[in-house]
Amino acid sequence: MHFLVDSEADCSIIPATCNNNQPSDFKLFAANGTEIPTYGIKVLKVDLGLRREFLFPFMIAKISKGILGADFLHKFNLLIDINKRRLIDGLTQLSIQGNIFSITNDLTVTTLNKCEKFSNLLLQYPELTKHNILPTQVKHGVKHFIETKGQPIHSKVRQLDSKRLAIAKEEFKFMLDN
Fold it and tell me: What InterPro entries is this protein classified in (predicted)?
């Protein structure tokens, strides 16, 4: 899969396929304010040729080309060198060549509809509009409990089928690594 590297895009996205038919409640917007349909999240291993793989959750949306956004670049310390047309791994100092394409602003993807009259106010508090599926550190000491009475409900232990087990293992590995 080829990706467009866009440091202005709020989130990283992969194109929807015919298998992605369940619309998501999350909204993305093009620079012109047009809403882009989304279909959930998929965790992918991306190999950019930098001698390490990048495991990352991508939004699935109705777009023509995959986008590596600012969230991906920040998470993996990847730097854009426009002058030499390359992407640099800030950890290993390895780089890969890329191409610069002239695109219209309509292709820029954001989580914020810039046409709304409150967009300037939302830009002052970016944490309100950033989509982050990774757990963040809470800034308070409040814990929620659900008290129950009686014995827990029991169900016979059953093994997952191999396909679902592989998906679950990959998800647990992703959560432990992040």
Answer: Peptidase_aspartic_dom_sf (IPR021109)
Instruction: Give all strands (DSSP E) within the chain, no chain letters.
Output: 3-5, 13-15, 28-30, 35-36, 38-47, 53-61, 66-68, 78-81, 86-89, 95-97, 109-110
Token pair for 125 = 């508090």
Contact between residue 69 and residue 76 where contact means Cβ atoms under 8 Å apart: no
Contacting residues for 130 by C-beta, under 8 A, at least 6 apart: 10, 111
Summarised one tens digit per residue, pLDDT across range 144-157 is 888 888 887 877 88
- The pTM of this model reads 0.61
Q: Do 119 and 112 meet the contact criterion of CB atoms below 8 Å apart?
A: yes
